[in-house]
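Troubleshooting: if your tokenizer reports a length mismatch, compare your output against this known-good record of 332 residues.
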Amino acid sequence: MKAARLLLALTITVGWPAVHPTAGGETLEDPTLTGCVVTAKSDVVVSAEDAGVLVAVDVTEGDQVRQGYPLARIDDTEPQIRKQLAEFEQNAAEEEASNDISVRYSRAQADHAQSTVEEKVAANRRVPGTVTNEELRTVELDWKRTKLSIEQAIFEMKLAGITAKGKAASVAMEEKNIERRQIKARIDGTVVELDKRAGEWVSPGDPILRIIDVSTLRIEGFLNASQYDPHDVSGRPVTVEVELARGRQLKLTGQVTFVSPEVLTGGEYPVRAEVKNRTEGDQWVLRPGLIASMVIHVNRAIEGGKSPAASNGKARAPVSTSKSSRAQASAR
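Known-good structure output:
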């Protein structure tokens, strides 16, 4: 009984072995990919969205910025003036839309005209022929005109309301034009390049600066398609090792996030993992451009609790990166 408990404890402690036997008794070894390239997960070139003079650049190389942080500004004098003009016109239209003086005056005229018609009709009843038919038609026409003037005044109020909405849209458009001249960071990261300086003219699409985020890095290498299938490595945990200055070794853990569906010339296919970076002092330790080695733990559970996939091949030796495959991937 004690022996059985000891065996169970050892099984839980050890977990999956580095070489996992398949149903047929064969084994699948963890591949080691050498010559892997380290790149930033986020690398953004911030470009001008409108033409104009770059009146301010508020950052320099090495500055840490957060998403939405103001980086530079293109001259926005013209859209500011257009916005102010549109606001004045919007206010005037709104005043007209809320002003009912014309409606009230037209109603007063209509009441007066109606009274005049009624008086003329009453006079003719008392003494026939007092008011000629021409006079009566004239005052009745004036009454109709005043009633129509009420409708016209209401229509003009509605039209002023529509004009106010149009001017509000013009204000919003100019605010957008002003915003496009406010150049802001699109990601968290570090400013690594400045292509334009204050006082220079920029056109839409001109690069102004470049930001990279190295808090998460990508490690890309190549696997032999004859030894490992995509499902063998997809989602698997990895251990990445990089040599730093003075021969120091850095190890980080991560996970495979991409397996290419294409097999390149040479029979290899790209595999990419992501690892969380760490700092020493105020500097990131792992940097884009370094060369790393990466072990893919094909026998460990995928995140989410799946068990290791069984392999149908024989025991396989660790895989290294092929120069021909690397060259083809770079060309693509």
